[in-house]
Design goal:
Length: 461
Amino acid sequence: MTSTNTTDQSAPQPDRRPSPWDAPAPTGGHDALGGAVEGVEGDRSGSVVSDRAVVSAPDAAAATPAALLPAAADHYALFQDVAGEDLQAWADARSLADEVLPRINDWWDRGEYPIELIARLGELDLLTDGLDVPGHRTLSPLATGLVNMELSRIDGSVGTMVGVQGGLALRSIMLLGSEEQKQRWAEPLARGTEHAAFALTEPDHGSDSVSLETVARRDGDGWVLSGQKRWIGNGAGCHLTVVWARVEDESQPALHGQVSGFLVDQSLPGYDAEVIRGKVALRAIHQAHITLDEVRIPLAQRLPGARSFKDTSVVLFATRAGVAWGALGHALACYEAALEHAQKRIQFGRPLAKAQHVQVRLADMLQTLTSMQLHCRRLAELEAAGTIRPEQASLAKVHNTRAAREIASNARDLLGGSGILLENRVVRHRSDIEALHTYEGTDTMQSLIVGRSITGVSAFA
Ligand SMILES: Cc1cc2nc3c(=O)[nH]c(=O)nc-3n(C[C@H](O)[C@H](O)[C@H](O)COP(=O)(O)OP(=O)(O)OC[C@H]3O[C@@H](n4cnc5c(N)ncnc54)[C@H](O)[C@@H]3O)c2cc1C
């Protein structure tokens, strides 16, 4: 799709510009997504869990719920009735496992963002996060959740790619944008041919992002943006950033002083972004620290539906359930790895799984996992009925990210020393879940939202 807006400074960039994320070409046959892989870490040092063994991608057309989620991981058969388009979307997400798992540890180890995966996610039509985008399937709430779960079950960075590009950036445009903005951005973002960010958090405003200080000053026929943003996925070396800023425009009293969204081309003068290094979670996607120094954009680049922070919150609320599903994916991966390890690892002349205490621990994990699944399934029902309330998504987010941490820690320990090796998968998920625990509203802030709903009193504002 080409732009119909000739004044649009965010003109299409068909080829990705050189990115500060670009890392040296990998060695050992890791240079092309989907290509042959040599030297994939094998079974060493007593480790018995392999990425491929734990999740293998079935033929999407032949997938069944039981193949995607065996009974040992679906104790109440909560997902065995998934069928039709929902099942297809779930299987499509799973199909990425074979492409990603053999190389994810390499990317993770090197802190490299395989940004080409976004186009691959677009090819599979997995980027729309339940949005109604013309020319694309509209995933049901259940399918959207299953896709989130499955991608995080593969890797948290991959799940976060969809969360940022589809869940936050594309959603902002589809819910709050003008027809012209949707025409320009919906297709390339849904296809993954262009990459977008959602910039709300600032160095001094995380949980209280409602107090953000970035300003958008009206200046003649444009807006001039100044301020800083932190932790912004896709914020460097990509195409578009949806910047949330406080409006300074006394000619529009209703808007003056309010928070609104602005579409900012990352190549504009004054837009400077630095990848945040030294991160120990979600290492296969990058977040940026952005400085906006008098960045000038046309008037038409403001999202007309974004008239106050309440409109920003609509976007944030819509993606919170996705984090609960993502946490479920991480927990599933850890539980499956622990179960496989317990069955294969021999100590004292018998498999770990024959020890009573190990079975109790596995049963504990399954119990926690099942409660996570119940939260997710119910969220999908409420969303499909159109009755879901923000505090319900908050409760599920809190419950599931806490539960995923618990399962990941238990699984890590059950794998012994092998549990701290990337090749055994658990420690990567255990690290990634820390980011989910914090982003899209911290554990505490989500609890306070639930607390406000049950007491009628806000403890934070
Ligand atoms: C990997 C990652 C990716 C991210 N991606 C994005 C992105 O793409 N776009 C974006 O805009 N943002 C992004 N974020 C930012 C994220 O949303 C914030 O980190 C989050 O909102 C918390 O803000 P903070 O880190 O500043 O912590 P703070 O707000 O400083 O909180 C620190 C601690 O204090 C607690 N706390 C805060 N206020 C209260 C209170 N009133 N009462 C009790 N406890 C309180 C918090 O719960 C937390 O435990 C990302 C963050 C991470 C880690």
